[in-house]
Each structure stands twice: as C-alpha cells, then as structure tokens.
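Sample A.
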Amino acid sequence: MSAAPTDELASEIKEAFVSNWGVLAEGQANLRLLFWSPAVHLGLFRCATHLASQLRATMTMMTMLSGATVQLRVHLLTGEIQNAMRCGKELVRRWQRVAMEHAGPAEQAAVREGFETELRLLAEVKSTHIAAFGRVGE
C-alpha cells in the first residue's frame, strides 16, 4: 500500500465504521487515529472501550483503502496505553529483526536508524482507550 495521508486513512476507517455500525455508534466511539507510520504500516486508533470490538470487526472486514486492496491486522485491543505501546514496540522490534536479516552490511545502519526513529515517534503517543493495529498488507 502506498503511503496514505493520515487524515485519509482515519476518514476511510471511520466511514467503514459508520457503514457497519451507524452514525450513533461512531459518535459514541469517539474514533481517532493517534499514530500512523507509513514507513512500517503501524497505527494506533483510539476508541471508546465499549465499542472496541466493533472497531476490530470493522478494520478486519476492510478490503479497500485509498483505492488499494488491503488487509488490516488488529494485533491488540486494550484500555491501557502502556499495553498498546508495548505491543507496538514489540511489533516494530520484530519487523526490525526481519529487515536486518534481509539487509546487506551497507544497509544495516540505515535500517537500524529508521526503526529507531519509528520507536521514538511511537513513544510520543499519549492517550487512553487504544486499539492497536499493525501491518497493512496488500
């Protein structure tokens, strides 16, 4: 998937949520994309706890995003920011290990630096009622 702008990504997920659960549920859910990394396709979405399962279902059922075929994988639903951050960090570290295995000696420093930047950006996220999702696959 190409790097969709954050606002466009959030808008399409909200539209899908409304399509599945209605405008009232969308208003109650207070949906907000808190973090999106187009580099590693990792995001954190805020949602009211009582509608988190509906957000998971919506994201799991999405097949198109910004005109591209996608599969959203929800890795964690939680009400605790610490758990969402831990999950996000674990995912980034896992993806970094895989990228390092495939990178040549000359590329490894750039790969390491890129993933460390992603971890710093992720660490800046602050909120409650988080649903974390990971890779957007084509």
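Sample B.
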Amino acid sequence: MFRRLRTLPASGRRRRGLGLVLALATAGVLTGPAASAGAPPGSATTPETATAYPLATESDPGTRADKQTRAPQFMVDAGAETGNVAESEHFAVRWGDAVDAVAWGRENRGIDNYPQWVADHMDEIYAYYVDEVGFVDPADHPVGSQYRINLHLCGTWSGDFLPPANWAGGDDIGLGHMCLPYDKVWDEWVESHEFNHVLQIYAVDLNIAAGHGGGWGAGNTAAGPVWEAHANYMARMKRPEVVVGSGYIIDRQHYRWLSQETYYGDWMLFNTIRELYGPDVIDQFWYEAEQGEHPIDTVKRVLGLDHEAFAALIAEYTSRQVVYDFVDGDLIRGDLWTGGGDYRPLHTDPLQSLGGDRYRIADSDAPHQYGHNTIQLNPSGDQVSVSLTGASDLSGADWRFRLAAVSPDFSVRYSEAFGPGETAGFGLQGGETHLMLVVAATPSEHRNYPAGQVGVGDPFPYELTIQGASPAQ
C-alpha cells in the first residue's frame, strides 16, 4: 500500500524513447492516495506549495554510487533514532532503538549483517525494475538522483514509532521512502510492490515536468486504486506465479474495474494491454496522463481508441480470462487451478429463464462498467447461436459478448466479439469440451464513482436468446 505523499515538480529523461523532458513545472498542492495506518504524521497532509528543484541531467552510471543519505524530517522532528543505517548504492536501511536489527538478524536469519543484506537485496530489486524492466529511472528525478531511498525496518523503534506495516511514499522533499516490517519474509513480492510505489511517485513528478499536471497522482481521485493495481502488475513481473495473493478474486469479475472490492487484482487489464500493445505503453500512461484523468480515459486517449475499438479491447480482456490466455498464462493457471487436471471453469454466472430460449442475468450478477460474466453453455448440437438485448436504461449502455471453445489442455478458440442486436454462431469442434460465453459491460459513457466505498456502481443487465444450447446451472 502507499501513503499520501508530497511530490515535487521534477524533470528528466523519460525511459524507452519517450523523449527528454527539459521544462521544470512548479505545482501547487500535490496529493497521492490516502495515508496508511502508522505512516508519519505529516503524511496525511500536504503543504500549500511544492518547491522547485534544479533540472536533473542525464547521469553517468558511474556517479550513481555518490548518492547521499538523508533522514526524513519527520524522524528528526520526532527525535527518533536515525543513526542506525546500512547503505547500499541506492538504499539507506534504518532501524530503531528498540530492536537491534543486526543482532536479530544473526539470531533469527543467520545473517551476519542483516540491515546490509536488506540494502543489497533492495539494490537487486532496483536493478530489475530500473535497468531491466525500464520503468522510471530515479537518475532522471532531481531528488531521487541525489539521495538514497530510505527503507525503514518498521517495528524496531520504541514508543510505537513506525509500527510494522507495508507502505511507501514521498518524504518532505519528495524522496521515496518505504516501511517494511523488520521480520518480514523477503519474497520479492511486497518489496517489489512497495518499491514500485516509489517509482510511481517519481513518474508523477516527471508527468508534472512534462506539463500534464500530475496525471494519476496530484489529487487524482482514482490514484489509490490504480496505483495498487499497477504496483501488483509490476510485482508480478518479478513473481508472475502470484495471482490469488495479488487480490485477484474469481467471483468478483462482474464488479467494475478499480472498484473498492477488486482494485488490487485489477492488474489483469494492464496484462491485456501489454500483450496487445507492448509493455512500453503502460509506462507511457504514467508519463502522459492528464491531471485528474481517470485511467480509462487515459487508455482511450493514449491508444487512440474510439468507442468501438475500446469495446473490442474490453472484450479481449474479459474473454482471455476464461483460460487466462496470456504469455504468463501457465503461471496464472498454476495458482488458480491448484489441483491440476483438465480444464474446468472456476466460476460461472447463472442465468434466469424467461421461457423458451430466452434468458436474463440477474441485476445482482450483472456486470458493472468493464466487468463481465462468464456463462457455461451445454450445446445440444454442432452449432450454437447467441444474441443479446440490453436491459439497462443507463445512458451509453453497451455490451460485448464472445464465445470461447476450450479443450482439456486449456487451449482455446474464440468467436468474434458481438454487440447488442447481433447474433453469434459458434460451436465445439473435435476435442473441445467446454463452450463458454463471456458478456462484458462496455458503456460508451464512462462514469466516475467515489473511491474508497464498497457497493458503488451500476449494473448493466441484459437478456440473451440462446439456440442450440442451454446454460449450465
């Protein structure tokens, strides 16, 4: 998770050919997501103005070891222990006065200098995301280029100062810092997630420097959900086998994208975009999002998608989840189908019979915007036809549906995507055992909903005419 932060205007070189940012922008109050429990007192508020810092220049890799170490002001103001520190090239790992992290590491982990091991481990995480994946390079950031990222071994201070928690944010000068429990399991998941929050902070600063006002930060109401979804998307690059632990919940796929109930697991849309457009465009969203813009509007604008093209993207995103048809699909399936064996649906949505060959989705199960239903059909012959009629009065209501024929080995064959009033004709072929129907809500009018609230959204119910098959119950 990440805490409310004070970010600073910055400039520098955008990664992957995004161009050199030469202009400094001076911003007003810049806020990120809500503060987490146990975060520094100053994290819940932001100053009236942000300070402009000198232009960062493209750095020589040989100078990176010259970064300085700085204690955040909130620690100094609190009179907290700041002298216990282990340094690596990019990190300063601190521990407090209540737990001797060096002695604890020797006794419990068999590591002679545990804080130094943590610092070196985090340099490996840094190298993976900055040098190999190529997200934001702190060398391009005016503060991040000068100072080591502070990592607090939380739970080692007395007086309940920095209690055990997982968070990351920006300190009083916009330098990234992280809180991780001193006794955590270093499994490359949580530390990757939190480190990417630091990179997101720097990305927002580069966005400001480019004249976009802060994009998905700087007070954007969607910041909390999209930062978490993206941080898990990034963490899964290091640990692609983590799915259940990422917050992806099988029986909540009808919820809207970035809902309070699903946002940690909503990295799946980024997975789809990466497969269709390449990974660089995900970074581009961060650099080019306009201030206050909802991420869906950013996706449409940056990719140049009109409504039909965006609806096709959502149809692709949702139908691929029948078997998790991605480059990392084997690893996703390994975490979801834990018992192994042949393909079997993990979750299906029931339909209500209207008599004859007509059916309706219950309002309680109907997809919200960009959510979807998965319905198993039992064919009675070689050919199945499906048509959809909308049953929503919401302006811009629209849907896309697609059929998927699945074999026991999880190989999949898709129909085209269809809209209301159109009829899909499809059927199983030799060796295919499951016919799955996926229906997604693809409204042409995007609705912004308040963040941080459960049960918020609008269902988009629909009716189906199905011939040659019956829905499994």
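B remarks: The two ends are 39 Å apart (CA to CA). The domain at 346-471 is CATH 2.60.120.380 (Jelly Rolls).
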